[in-house]
Specification:
The structure is a single chain. With 461 residues, the protein is of the alpha+beta class. The protein has a single domain (16-460), classed as Cytochrome p450. It has 18 helices and twelve strands. The chain has a five-stranded mixed β-sheet. It has a three-stranded antiparallel β-sheet with strand order 4-12-9. β1 and β2 form a beta hairpin. It is globular. The relative contact order is 0.17. The structure holds protoporphyrin IX containing FE. The site of protoporphyrin IX containing FE has 22 residues, from α12, α13 and α18. Belongs to the cytochrome P450 family. This is Cytochrome P450. Its cofactor is heme.
């Protein structure tokens, strides 16, 4: 539908306390969006520095933007440029034909069949990390900073599945610190009035270069070793091998394989997209398990029944309740809540709202996931919502992995990884929190993280 001049633009909003809107959103993106929704309902219009920004709070609008009208929207060029300055040109930072080609080449490497080949590497990483970080002797008990624990495990999983190499704790910490610092720097740059060129000194540039060296050296060393045959044995199932062998099944004039630079840039992407999201999801899942012992008891029954005589991949597939607890944890605490935006490529109408070319639209996943129109008692932890036979969830009301052509490439990877980690934890540990303790408030810190440390007691069973 074309924009009709008589259509009303949605009402505008001001920040409370006279704060500039941009600072308000930067400091508290979830609180700011809640304020906009309370004041203005399903569509909120802001004007910031001559920029039109619309928040759409209904699942129908999210569906239209991400799926039905996907060709009328693109990811924001400015955002892609900022991320390109540390990730290079990979499937996350490109658009158009370049993105299509990379996505086509990479997709088979992230199919459920291919992911099953990474399972042994994932399991080795999980066992080693848990052995190092958690009590090993039956009855042994420790209070653990859950986010630090899930960071170790998920970073180890990414390093091991990428390169087949066991890494030291120091190495894994260096990589996660570097990736988090680089992503935080990118998030700061998003709010700057202009993007400084690399030759110009700017706040954080020296640190950015230092962290980039850590990541680039690690990847270059691993790729060189693989190409020269030093680390080839036993690694035929890892992600690097997949990247080196990947072929375009619809070759265009561009290369039918990934270039060396693209392989490097997609390795950086896997670090940045692949570990903090899963770490965030598992952190909240562990907190929810520590506060819902009845759910843990049901999970142990399910896992016990499913694992008898089954391979790990089969048993993960036979764990609907476990998978439902993870989905429900990501509904309450969606890891990727920041920067879920698109820009209108042309004038378009979403629902009955006219959206002009160039408008930035925000999809507020947190608010969609807690909308009482889509989820009964939205604040309650109820894994049953995701069990087979439960009433259908409205389309695009649940967007933990996104929707449309850019939906998460690593969805199967993350689903299997999280199920393996979660099953290992409930089978081996009792989880509890101090009497009366509740889950911390969430904060958007790259992914959705606890504002104050989430501490859980792990007792070996
Ligand atoms: C719980 C874990 C994860 C969550 C919640 C998550 C969430 C998301 C979301 C919401 C998007 C869509 C962004 C948009 O449309 O703008 C996305 C895209 C993406 N994710 Fe994930 N992700 C997770 C894990 C992973 C993992 C493990 C990998 C890789 C191994 C990965 C790789 C990607 C890539 C490459 C894209 C961009 C796809 C494209 O633009 O074509 N993600 N993810």
């Amino acid at each position: 539908m074309a924009i009709n001049p008589s259509m009303d633009a949605p009402p505008a909003v001001k920040a409370p306390l006279g704060l500039p809107l941009l600072t308000y959103i930067q400091q508290d993106p979830l609180g700011a969006a809640s304020h906009f929704q309370r004041r203005l309902g399903d569509v909120a219009r802001l004007n910031i520095l001559f920029r039109r920004i619309y928040y759409f709070f209904s699942p129908e609008a999210a569906r239209q933007i991400l799926v039905d009208h996907q060709a009328d929207f693109t990811r924001e060029a400015r955002l892609l440029k900022i991320f390109e300055s540390f990730q290079g040109k990979n499937v996350l930072t490109t658009e158009g034909a370049d993105w299509e080609r990379q996505r086509r080449i990479l997709a088979p490497g992230f199919s459920p069949k291919r992911i099953s080949g990474y399972i042994n590497l994932m399991r080795a990483a999980i066992h080693d990390s848990v052995r190092e970080e958690l009590p090993a002797v039956r009855g042994g008990s420790a209070i653990v900073d859950v986010d630090a624990l899930t960071t170790c495990i998920t970073m180890d999983v990414i390093l091991r599945t990428l390169f087949s190499q066991p890494t030291t704790r120091t190495e894994a910490n260096r990589v996660s610190t570097a990736i988090r610092a680089l992503t935080r720097q990118s998030m700061r740059e998003v709010f700057w009035a202009f993007i400084p060129p690399e030759w110009m000194p700017y706040p954080g540039r020296a640190e950015k270069r230092k962290h980039l060296r850590v990541i680039n050296t690690l990847i270059a060393t691993q790729v060189d070793a693989r190409k020269s045959g030093v680390t080839s044995s036993g690694s035929s199932q890892d992600v690097l091998e997949m990247l080196l062998a990947a072929r375009d099944d619809q070759p265009t004039s561009a290369s039918a394989t990934l270039t060396s630079k693209e392989i490097h840039d997609n390795c950086v992407l896997l670090f940045s997209a692949g570990f903090d999201t899963a770490s965030s999801a598992l952190t909240w899942w562990i907190g929810l398990m520590a506060t819902h012992p009845e759910v843990v008891a049901r999970l142990r029954d399910e896992i016990g029944a499913a694992s008898a005589g089954a391979s790990p991949i089969e048993s993960v597939a036979r764990l609907p309740y476990l998978n439902a607890t993870i989905k429900e944890a990501m509904r309450l605490y969606p890891p990727s809540t920041a920067l879920f935006t698109r820009v209108a490529l042309r004038d378009v109408v979403i629902g009955d709202t006219p959206v002009k070319k160039g408008t930035l639209v925000v999809i507020p996943i947190w608010h969609l996931h807690r909308d009482p129109r889509s989820f009964d008692e939205p604040g309650a932890f109820r894994p049953e919502r995701f069990m087979p036979g439960a009433p259908a969830i409205p389309r695009s009301a649940y967007l933990a992995f996104g929707a449309g052509p850019h939906f998460c490439l690593g969805q199967h990877f993350a689903t299997i990884e999280m199920a393996l980690i979660a099953a290992h934890i409930v089978q081996n540990f009792d989880l509890s929190m101090e009497d009366g303790a509740v889950l911390p408030e969430p904060v958007v810190d790259i992914a959705l993280k606890p504002k104050t440390p989430l501490r859980v007691r792990f007792t070996r069973r």
